[in-house]
Structure formats: structure tokens, C-alpha cells
């Protein structure tokens, strides 16, 4: 379960607001009182307050006394927030969001792999190898949900092993993108064997302290992901 996928009314209302935003039912400049939000989404004032706090924290809304809750322009939103990524993956901007994620991963994860090969602890290297082994076991069976969890574990472990707190903070973003790709049937029924092998190679290179190998194998992974998104986008255009 990713950070954008909690439970309860709080999550339910955020999801509905996200849908309203990504489909144009809510727009920048719209203003609502707490009472109007309660009535619109059928929840208590306590839930509304929690939701508004989240919306403010990710730049989607501002709240002022005697004014109300104002929807902010999309340019003010926290683009890397897993909540916003989840909204966009659920809405009509899905393919554009996945392309943007793939482009960003190409700039981030190969460098993270290089750093991990230089800095990973034995425990971090073991976690990477276990996640890659899990992908190798479940991928050929078409067990996509289990494969997804191993894939998320792999990329989280990779980013953490970089020894860079900013790169480690990128993990929820990647997890949300990987989840969205699977949930919306944008993964092949059987993951590409080449992609699985490259994950195994990244883990081995990091365990052996080989930065060049780790970076190159990781670059192959994200380049393949980018190509897949470009192909899907071409079909959808």
C-alpha cells in the first residue's frame, strides 16, 4: 500500500476531491466554506478539517477565515506528492503523468544506483538482492501484484542505499507510479524477462561494489520503462 492509499473517510474524501479536480468539476479559484464541503462530500467537520490540512500541505488549497477554502492553480501543487500523482494516475492525465515519471526516473535512479554501489551496507545489498530474486520468481508466473510489491521494495531499497536523503525521499513517488502502472493494466501480463534480469544485475553490481555496472543496468531499466510509456502514448494519441 502506498502513502496515497490509506483508508477511511479521510482518504475517501481526498480521492473524490482529486477526481473532481482532474476532471474539471473543481477549478482554480473555486471557494467553499467548511459547511459546503461537509454537504458536498457527506462527512463531518472533523474529517473536513483533516482533508483541508492535507490539501494545504500539498499546495492544492488555501484556507482563510471569513473567506473559506480556495482551490489553487495547478502550478502551485506539490507535483511530487504521492497524493497528487495518485489523482493524476486515476484521471484523464494518466499517460502524461506516467511519461513525466519515466522521464524523471531516467535522471534520478541511475545516479542512485551508482551511489548505492559505493555506499550500500551489507544489509541494504541483501534487501536489494532479495527483492530482485522475488521479481525473478513471481514475474514469469504472471503474479503481478506480488511482483509489484517486490518491485516497489527494490526501488525503495535502491534509493535508500544511495546514502542520500533526498534520493531516499523519492521512493514514495516511484512506488505510486509503479502501482498506477499495474492497477491500470499498463503492464504486460508477463513482465519482460530483460527488465527482470536488469534488476538482478543492479542488485549484483551493488553487492559487488561496481558503480559503472550498477548505473548502466539501472539506466537500461528506466530507459525500457520510458520506451514502454512512449509506445502506450503513441497508441493512445
TrEMBL record:
Transmembrane segments: none annotated. Keywords: DNA-binding, Transcription, Transcription regulation. Residues 7-74 form the HTH gntR-type domain. SUPFAM superfamilies: GntR ligand-binding domain-like (SSF48008), Winged helix' DNA-binding domain (SSF46785). The keyword Transport does not apply. Coiled coil: none annotated. GO terms for molecular function: DNA binding; DNA-binding transcription factor activity. The keyword Transcription applies. Pfam families: FCD, GntR. This is FadR family transcriptional regulator.
